[in-house]
Amino acid sequence: MRRATLPMGEDPALYHGVRKRLFVGLLICTSILVCLILFLFWLFPLLDMGAVHPILPWLYMSVIVLLMAVVAWTSLGVVLNIALRKPVLGSRRMRSMTIRFFLPLMEMLGNAVGISKEKVRHSFIRVNNELVRSEARRYSPKDVLILLPHCLQKTLCSRRLNNIENCRRCGECPIDGLLGLGEKYGVHVAVATGGTVARRIIVDCRPKCILAVACERDLASGIQDAFPIPVYGVLNERPHGPCRDTLVSLEQLEEALLFFLKKE
After folding, report:
1. Which residues of the chain have pLDDT under 50?
2. Percent of the chain beyond pLDDT 70?
3. Residue 7 within a domain
4. How far is CA 119 from CA 43, 129, 195, 221, 257, in A?
5. Which of 134, 168, 184 is the last residue before a domain boundary?
6. Residue 263 burial class via C-beta count within 10 angstroms: exposed 0-12, middle 13-18, buried 19 and up
């Protein structure tokens, strides 16, 4: 029997039990709830608009119908994008709506039915990666940034990596291999100690594509903060628990990097 392969950048331990269908199911349920709320606003307007002007009820109805159509179009488009593995009309706008609007609502809905935020975010990262890959864009090395979390650095290391060149390349943590990857392909590599530092790095480097390594929480928030720059998320491995001596697969990161780099 052929062994199933995981998507690029997926850790098998984290992948277990987390599927794209979780995201799709929550997206559809959230869309239905939003449309239902909009429909209730249509049935029970807050004031008698006809008394103000005869045309106002029609304008109000048109706005409600338009919003419902946008919600339905976005959720259907994302599902089609996932199923077909290629962009559909307005896929960039769909990614924007999914990141900025649907994800917070899906986290609340998941929490209400007993699904952890970590699982929802993990599923979201997988879908986001597929949406980014489906755009099939290729970039020059100077336009690509590999953004790393500080927890990849060995806890006992005394070096401050606010400038990654401070790394003494001892090989005790993954930073040495990641720097080698950056040198091999000529892409930017940086370590962020938090969201503010990550945003500053992005402003300084001005990348057109980001490969980010982090946990579910930081990746989800980073994808939101960096939009419209496409962010491909690679989940780190946490053998010692969160935020301590984490790891990342160089092979999986290199595979993702090669996908986005222009062929020389």
Report:
1. 1-17
2. 85
3. no
4. 36, 15, 21, 14, 25
5. 134
6. exposed
d(CA 200, CA 98): 24
- Alpha-carbon torsion, ordered 226, 231, 234, 236, to 10 deg: -10
In this predicted structure, what is the pLDDT of residue 196?
A: 84
Amino acid at the residue 161: L
pTM of the predicted model, to two decimals? 0.79
Q: For residues 240 and 260, give the distance between their C-alpha atoms in angstroms, rounded to a whole number.
A: 31
CA atoms of 120 and 107, how far apart (whole Å): 6
Helix (H) or strand (E) holding 58: helix 56-84
C-alpha of 176 from chain center? 26
Q: Are residues 40 and 130 in the same domain?
A: yes
**What is the CB neighbour count within 10 angstroms for residue 159?**
14
